[in-house]
Amino acid sequence: MRKNIAFTLAIMAVSHLSAQKPFKRNTYYAEIGGNSIALAANYERQLANKPGFGVHIGIGFGNRKPTIPLGVKYLFELGKKQRSFFETGAGMTMGAKYLWKAAHGRGTDKNPYEPGFIASVGYRHHTRYGLLWRICYTPIFTSYRNIFYLGGISLGWRL
């Protein structure tokens, strides 16, 4: 009888230890600075059931005009618990031309929006309760040969 109880408890312990919670693929987060220059609300979707490639889109504000950041990201795990990540990415932000023409004057154009191209690198942390925070460096390159050296911080929730 003791052997049966010990065997049952051992099986239950092993099955409990090996079971992992599934990786949450959807993330909603607010960002200060970063991809949208000032403030943004973003949605991100990981493309697989484990950390790796993901896509993001958002709506933000950069000096009174809306911006639309979008891009791809890749998460590199910094441990086995799927909580800490090194994040890299590339994308673009559709923003008002006068934001990018900082040194070239305002001018008037038929299309007031133009893309700014973004590379990003940063650190991301997921809590076991679903909270996410991240800090990143996001330089923005424009067709006017301006480079904006920006950084950003984000706070959000994973679902």
Q: Which word captures the global form?
A: elongated
Report how far apart the termini are: 44 Å
- The secondary structure category is mainly beta
Counted up, domains total: 1
Briefly summarize what is shown:
With 159 residues, this protein is mostly beta strands. 13% of the residues lie in helices and 56% in strands.
Textual characterization of the structure:
The chain is mainly β and 159 residues long. The chain has a single domain (23-158), classed as Porin. It contains 2 helices and 8 strands, in the order αβββββαβββ. The chain has helices spanning 2-18, 97-100, and strands at residues 26-33, 39-46, 53-62, 65-77, 84-96, 113-126, 131-141, 147-158. It has an 8-stranded antiparallel barrel with strand order 1-2-3-4-5-6-7-8. The chain is elongated and about 85 Å long.
Features:
159 residues, mainly beta, Porin, 8-stranded antiparallel β-barrel, 2 helices, 8 strands, 56% strand
SSE order and pairing:
Elements: H1 2-18, E1 26-33, E2 39-46, E3 53-62, E4 65-77, E5 84-96, H2 97-100, E6 113-126, E7 131-141, E8 147-158
Antiparallel strand pairs: 1-2, 1-8, 2-3, 3-4, 4-5, 5-6, 6-7, 7-8
